[in-house]
Amino acid sequence: MDALFAVRARGITKCFGDIVALDGVDLDVTQGQIHGLVGPNGAGKTTLLGLLLGLAVPDGGRLEILGTPVERALAAPDGVAGFVDAPGLYPSLTARQNLAALAALRGLDAGTAGIDDVLGEVGLTDVADDKTRGFSLGMRQRLGLASALLTRPRLLVLDEPSNGLDPAGKRHVHGVLTRLASEGTGVVLSSHRMDDLEALCSEVTILATGRIVFSGPLSKLAAENRELDYRLRTSDPGTARRVAADTPGIRIVDDSGVRQDADVLVVRALTPALDELVAKVVRSDVAVRELAPVVSPLEAAFLALTEQQEAGR
Ligand code: ATP
Q1: Domain stops at, among 217, 247, 276
Q2: Hey, whose CA ends up nearest to atom 28 of ligand 1?
Q3: Do 273 and 187 share a domain, yes or no?
Q4: Residues β-bridged to residue 27
Q5: Rg (CA), the chain
Q6: 61: region left, alpha or beta (phi > 0 left; psi from -120 to 50 alpha)
Q7: Which residue CA neighbors atom 27 of ligand 1 most closely?
Q8: Which of 84, 105, 184, 253 would staple 266 via disulfide (CB 3.0–4.6 Å)?
Q9: How far apart are the first and last CA of the chain?
Q10: Domain containing 177: what range?
Q11: What distance in angstroms lies between residue 202's CA and the mean position of ligand 1's atoms?
């Protein structure tokens, strides 16, 4: 057994009839790592998460979870918790009663204090005695996470955990995931929110039509030498535009699909040309009020890599 790995997958395939949902997927998630799965709709993210939760078995390849080979699907392997799609809840029970019922079903002795703790961690203390029938999507997600926490998982698997979360809910969920990872739990989550992935994950795997397009640290993606679109907000947009037009390596993007405020210029550049532009703008006595990528490096890489793959098909 290799205790370092929460997940080791090699050459995983999974088909539904003629549809190849996963096609030779490798995945390594070390303990204490938060690993993000990204990909367009239908890429295979939920299918892969389902295999990790023991909801199905791969058709081919080798899957080891917490050091144990997975051979048959019955229930989540020992030490694994999480959910795909939506967490299963009893609508006529309160949040607290749901957790007590789930703990009893799993044979856990969570106790009132344990249940109060996890409700507090996900920020649901105030609604602990409300029936879950009236819960919003974000509240359900948080209660699903609370139920996973009761089992003290060593691998936590979550499908779109940020769905429906308000900023306070997101702060709670991010806090919980970061704490779990710091204690050694491996976390695998899917998301369409690149900002969440960038805030949380040390590594990401990008899937497109069942295949891996990229897997590795976010820093490796960000370091790739690619041009990005940047919003440049200045005190004098007319001068900034003239300076940009005069700077080698800078392209002014007028139709980037970005809301164009009067004082914002969108330019496409590599970092060195951008540095040069900012220095020139400042030398022209124009103040730079904001400079930020229109889409994050992860989103840009995601779009470029998946477009490449689609073009190659
Ligand atoms: P999304 O971002 O839309 O949630 P996803 O990346 O999670 O997509 P999956 O749900 O894993 O993608 O689906 C991968 C492929 O497998 C899709 O073509 C989907 O239609 C197919 N698929 C998934 N589950 C089943 C099933 N139970 N029966 C038939 N086809 C399925």
Answers
A1: 217
A2: 16
A3: no
A4: 9
A5: 23
A6: left
A7: 16
A8: 253
A9: 39
A10: 5-217
A11: 25
Query: Among the three residues 164, 197, 217, which one is the final residue of a domain in this structure?
Result: 217
Atom of ligand 1 nearest to the CA of 43: 6
Is 52 found in the same domain as 70? yes
Structural domains counted in the chain: 2
Nearest CA to ligand 1 atom 24: 47
**Mind listing the pLDDT tens digit for each residue in 19-77?**
999 999 999 999 999 999 999 889 999 999 999 998 888 999 999 999 888 876 666 67
> Same domain, yes or no, for 62 and 93?
yes
With a Cβ cut-off of 6 Å, ligand 1 is lined by: 16, 19, 21, 39, 41-47
SS (H, E, C) 132-174: HHHCCHHHHHHHHHHHHHHCCCCEEEEECCCCCCCHHHHHHHH
Q: Which atom of ligand 1 is nearest to the CA of 47?
A: 11
Atom of ligand 1 nearest to the CA of 39: 6
Residue 257 neighbours by CB distance under 10 Å:
10
Stretches where the chain sits below pLDDT 50 are 1-2
Q: Which strands, in side-by-side order, build the sheet including 251-252?
A: 251-252, 264-269, 228-234, 288-293
Task: Give yes or no: residues 182 and 232 share one domain.
Answer: no
For the stretch 245-270, pLDDT in tens is 999 999 998 755 555 667 899 999 98
Mutate to test the pocket of ligand 1, among 27, 41, 47, 162 (most ligand atoms within 8 A of CB): 47
